[in-house]
Amino acid sequence: VAFGCPGVLAVLGLEAAAPGECELTRLLQDKLQYEMRLQYMKHNFPIDYTVQVQYEEVLRPSNITRLRNGTVSEVALRYLWFHLSSQAVLRIREVLPEKHPSWKYTQELGHLFDALGKEYSKYRQTDVEAVVADLVKLVHSAGVESRRKAVRPKALLDNCLKVMRMLYGAPCESGTD
């Protein structure tokens, strides 16, 4: 079941994304345009500025390819992307004072992820493959100190956009939305 679209398969055999997911990811894609990421996540920060994140919070296209090859469902991969990307936005927001020029931008991204979270609220970790559920649990576990990694804010959002295009491109363009 793909978020209220049971049995609907998109092109290439990928599970369809719900119409709400597609609309919200389109809005996110607009907010994550290169010029905006450059302005708000690079130019508004000191040179070589990094944010400390858990190693598992860095989701790259290669991670998705590896998980797909391990037969993780598209729905589970989108669930993982949502959790890790919204966490990345939170990590960036944690370092910004309210008067920072990037504050409003990250707040808008946060609102879009909150709306997308409503799409995923009916989905439980027990509904996804164990590897995805374990990653989501690890990232959201308070007090659990895993390996930390210094990452530039722009790189976090670059990865967010690349992975989003991988996961939502075909399912949302297939005309099922």
From TrEMBL:
Tree of life domain: Eukaryota
GO cellular component annotations of the record: extracellular space
Coiled-coil ranges per UniProt: none
InterPro entries: IL-34 (IPR020415), IL-34_sf (IPR038328)
Database matches in PANTHER family: INTERLEUKIN-34
Protein name: IL34 protein
Pfam families, per database record: IL34 (PF15036)
A Gene Ontology BP annotation from the UniProt entry: positive regulation of cell population proliferation
Name of the coding gene: Il34
Record GO terms (molecular function): macrophage colony-stimulating factor receptor binding
Gene3D superfamilies: Interleukin-34
